[in-house]
Amino acid sequence: MCRKEFLYAYVAKYIFHIYLNIPEMKPKIDIFHYLNMDNEVDDFASIHSAIEKDIVFKGTNLWILVFAIIVASVGLNMNSTAVIIGAMLISPLMGPINGMGYSIATFNFPLFRKAIKNFSFAVVASLIASTTYFAISPVSVAHSELLARTSPTIYDVLIAFFGGLAGIIAISSKQKGNVIPGVAIATALMPPLCTAGYGLATAQFYYFFGAFYLFTINTVFIALSSVAIAQILKFPITTLVNPEQKKKVNRWISAIILITVIPSIYFGYGLVQKEKFNEKASKFVNSVTIVEGNYLLDHSISSSDQSINLIYVGNTLTDKQIEIINEKAELFSIDKLKLSIKQGFSLDEKNTKNTENDNLRIEINRLSKEIKMKDDLLKVYNDQKLIGNQLLAELNSLFPNIRSCSYSESFIFRKGSDQSSQIRIIIIKTESQKLRNSEKEKIQKWMENRFASEQIELYFE
């Protein structure tokens, strides 16, 4: 048998075995081959040397720490995102944190004490420097970049943990890449520490505790990620450790994780509730901008105590109109006891303070609002006409016997519920030849995929 005939015979046999579902000839895909890092892990001695070198704060590392503190403090003071990112990049604080995690994983207690000592020195030095800066700075306003570091949540735990995982893997790899700068930006160790200094300098201890708690979250979970990766990659343990010591270390780790995580879950829950209330409140306010000749002049939403203040101008609000507003608030699950409705001033009042120009301006605003609402309705109507025409063109390419297609949007209300849901109504007319049931089902599924919704009522005539 020649080589070509042998090749053909082998290919035919291979296809034949696959067709008969014989497992020996099936191609094997080993997903663990892609996840394996063994071939890319650096020499353990090199990893140990690199981590140990970054722990110590003296000489170069000390000066870099000082400069990073100053840069971060100025960035927070001036509300400059770019400057703050620069401070994150040059900050050497991750060194002792990785050292703590690595030493715990390898039960190297002398190295752990060394990492704790240097880390404590860096934290105290950073607090002293940032507190001093903010104490002498003429600008003492808390800008958005500073306030963002005072309310940590469970999401910051996730950022610190997964960012720390990326960092320790990069340190352990032969190909370092540009991961370390990215981790420094994501975990943001320096800014919350400087924010804590701002809290001390201005005697606003809420800022201090919030920022320092964020810094603690980042520290604990970056160190924890180092412990996890060191154990996964099986870093060698060079000291003798009895089982009782291991149990004690594990108990301490568990206790620290719980103490750190539980408050963040509580704060995270509060954040989610505030976001939900803000969303409901915004929809409610948009639904009561005009109430029978009264125009919503101003409003405020407070997510902390879940209250809403509404100020109307126009005709004097009657008890019935206030009741209508309260009923709408209940539809949006808003406590009417937390709803404050006020009349700014009335067009009917003969108040000498309100000139004729003021009254005209208010009336113009009211009419402009009504015109805008009608324009929006007209735009929706025109868009629906375009959608019907587009649907007809798309359907005709597959089903030439379709003669017409009408499209409209409405709301469906169900018994026993005050909530409504949007529904699309589509009517398709065909010529003499009717569509088969299989074709109707195909069109139904196509419509659901096209609009990414199952709320579609499809009628065939």
Poorly predicted runs are: 14-20, 22-29
Q: What is Rg?
A: 33 Å
Mean pLDDT: 78
Question: In what order do the strands lie side by side in the largest sheet?
Answer: 1-2-3-4
Instruction: Summarize the main sheet.
Output: 4 strands, mixed
Counting H and I runs of at least 4 residues, what is the number of helices? 16
Tell me the span between the first and last alpha carbons.
67 Å
Coarse structural class: alpha/beta
Shape: extended
Number of strands: 7
Query: What fraction of residues sit in β-strands?
Result: 5-15%
What percentage of residues falls in helices of 4 or more residues? Answer: 55-70%
Order of helices and strands: HHHHHHHHHHHHHEEEHEHEEHE
TL;DR?
By secondary structure, the chain is of the alpha/beta class. 63% of the residues lie in helices and 12% in strands.
Question: Overview of this structure, please?
Answer:
There is one protein chain. The chain is built from 16 helices and seven strands. Helix 4 crosses helix 11. It is α/β, with parallel strands linked by helices. The longest helix is centred in the middle third of the chain and has 45 residues. The protein starts with a helix and ends with a strand. About 3% of the residues have low confidence. It has a four-stranded mixed sheet with strand order 1-2-3-4, with helices on both faces. A three-stranded mixed sheet has the order 5-6-7. The radius of gyration is 33 Å and the shape is extended. Among the domains are: 202 residues; 74 residues, GMP Synthetase, Chain A, domain 3 (2-Layer Sandwich). Helix content is 63%, strand content 12%.
